[in-house]
Amino acid sequence: MNWQETLSQLEQGTVRAAYQDEQGQWHANTQVKQAILEVFKAGENTSFSSPYQGFVDKHNLPTQAFTPERGVRMVPGGSSVRAGAYVASGVIIMPPAYINIGAFVDSGTMVDSHALVGSCAQIGKNVHLSAAVQIGGVLEPIGANPVIIEDNAFLGAGVVVVEGRVVKQGAVLAPGVNLTASMPVYDCVHEYQLERGAPIPENAIVVQGSRPVSSAWGQAQGLQMSCALIVKYRDEQSDAALELESLLR
User: Among 80, 193, 212, 247, fewest CB within 10 Å belongs to which?
Assistant: First the structure.
């Protein structure tokens, strides 16, 4: 797979940087990620003309242009979608936002102001990425899984999801939640700790929490470490509070 073909297929959504197997597990598409690295290797720095005068990037990675026929609402104000990213019809991008190469953003999703969708991140249908949400990207190592946000998830303002964490369908991350590969997650409903790096379960509602440092010295100092807490699962009341207004789309 050559890099020119890969860029085209990524933008059309016919290939993706990650895939889901029959058991619902996500895996990095190493061939696609290797081809993306070849894009950078083949690219040469060049200056861009108006309206991007003064910017320098690889010549083969220009920002995408949108027309009404694509069905994407790209609101003016400094947003960019890099070459090799897929943005489906029905997506709304509020300024300023950035979607990087290899990312996949499915239909009905809102990418709000100051949001980042990093390289190879996979965002499902009808996802809400609130203001200042940061979805981490990954190109190297080749086998590293990207961040996955499945259909109908809702991420509150300032949420950070990095290091290949998976957020399953319908999950809600409250404002300020940070999820890394090592961040412990406790299910307060079913009273257990998720395995390290395990996906956030479907329809879970997650808030940022803290737990005491385990060492005697840390406890004596009253020190706390960050964690994430599943405090409930979605019900009719929470669904009503999160219902997206179709008129805005």
Answer: 247
